Amino acid sequence: MNPLHLSSQLCFPFYAISKEIIKRYRPLLAPLNLTYPQYLVMLVLWEKDFVTLKSIGERLQLDSGTLTPLVNKLISTGYIEKTRNPEDERQLVIKLTESGQQLQQQAKEIPAKITEVLGLDEEEYARYKEMLDELACKLEVKGGKC
Amino acid sequence: MNPLHLSSQLCFPFYAISKEIIKRYRPLLAPLNLTYPQYLVMLVLWEKDFVTLKSIGERLQLDSGTLTPLVNKLISTGYIEKTRNPEDERQLVIKLTESGQQLQQQAKEIPAKITEVLGLDEEEYARYKEMLDELACKLEVKGGKC
DNA sequence: TAAAATTAAATTGTGCACAACTTAAATATA
DNA sequence: TATATTTAAGTTGTGCACAATTTAATTTTA
Predict the structure, then answer these.
(1) What is the DSSP letter of B51?
(2) What sequence ranges are listed for the domain HTH marR-type (chains A, B) (predicted)?
(3) Are the C-beta atoms of A103 and A19 separated by less than 8 Å?
(4) Which of B4, B16, B131 sits opposite A108 (nearest CB)?
(5) Contacts of range B77-85, beta carbons closer than 8 Å, 24 or more positions apart
(6) Fewer beta carbons under 10 A from the terminal one: N or C of chain A?
(7) Whole-number mean pLDDT of chain A?
């Protein structure tokens, strides 16, 4: 077992599976005019509206260099708006538009469709999910359960 | 348990952990003048030299739009060379330079350093690896063990 | 064997991802 | 309370990732 072989790496299946899962999201998200990272931002906002760019970034592990253009895209698509916090003008406060709120109804079908296209049953899904949450804790990846 | 919550998604920990792992590779690969995707290409070539661009792409699940500029970067760094297969001029054959072969010696330290910075013991590493390989099979992600 | 279909790379364009830096606002401290 | 420090976004530049298209070589088939 050569540790320099691709098949010995833990990193590679993560990289490959992550890309594969995002690929399977693409046709489901395209009708909503969303990319996968944009969908993540919408998930955060559907959980809690009126949040700062900074807090979205902490949740998704993305910096302003990624989020600023991404948020501008979502604004031009019409799903969100940005204002400044009057008590701290540095902070950008993101809120859903009417259209962004309504989109949640369409998006509700996506989780079920995804488990379908991944071809995993409920038990498998839960087992993988648990293992990943555990590893996320170990690696201290924020936005998770610990 | 709202299925539209970020914390319910299988995709997100994959996305976040994958980015986190790549982030931890970065300082280890920087002294070798490699990015993570470039390191993956080198891993493939250290396993088997003189392979086509197409076969590298199949192994890593990357298309020519990604690989062509990446390979050109590795050429300008001096680790690989490209020639055409004289029996089929469409095919690009990639081979390691002297420098690219020597790099393997330095790279041999990386797997051990990575397990160290990930903070996983051998048992944990093996357990996660097994589960990922299993999922890769289920999702029919090529380049894996099935 | 000439035309059609297929294949391998390359090209073009969009959208992340992130490092490094800049700008402006708020807070801390001398 | 001026000055220094910190903080939140924004900007710039590099490097993937991938869809869609183009180009050129090879193979198929009419």
Answers:
(1) E
(2) 7-137
(3) no
(4) B4
(5) B77/B33, B77/B34, B77/B38, B79/B42, B79/B103, B80/B41, B80/B45, B82/B53, B85/B52
(6) N
(7) 95
- The beta-carbon contacts of B122-129 under 8 Å, at least 24 apart in sequence, are B124/A138, B125/A10, B128/A10, B128/A131, B128/A135, B129/A10, B129/A13
Q: Please name the residue of chain A whose CA is at the shortest distance from the CA of residue B146.
A: A7
Locate A39 and state its tokens. 């969908």
Residue type, A86: P
Per-residue pLDDT reduced to its tens digit, B40-69: 999 999 999 999 999 999 999 999 999 999
Of A9, A17, A139, the CB nearest to B135: A17
What's the distance, CA A60 to chain centroid? 6
**CA–CA dist A144, B8 (Å, integer):** 10
| Statement: the CB of A130 is under 7 Å from strand C | no
Measure A66 CA to nearest chain B CA, in Å: 13
- Encoded amino acid at B109, one letter: E
> Given its phi and psi angles, is residue B119 left (phi above 0), alpha (psi -120 to 50 degrees) or beta?
left
What confidence tier does B1 reach under pLDDT thresholds 50, 70, 90?
confident
A13:B132 CB<8 A: yes
The domain spans of chain B are 20-107, 109-146
What contacts A46, CB < 8 A, 6 or more positions away? Answer: A96, A104, A107, B4
What CATH class does B20-107 carry? mainly alpha
CA pair distance A47, B129, nearest whole angstrom: 32
- Give the domain A26-108 fold: Arc Repressor Mutant, subunit A (1.10.10)
Q: Is the CB of B33 under 7 A from strand D?
A: no
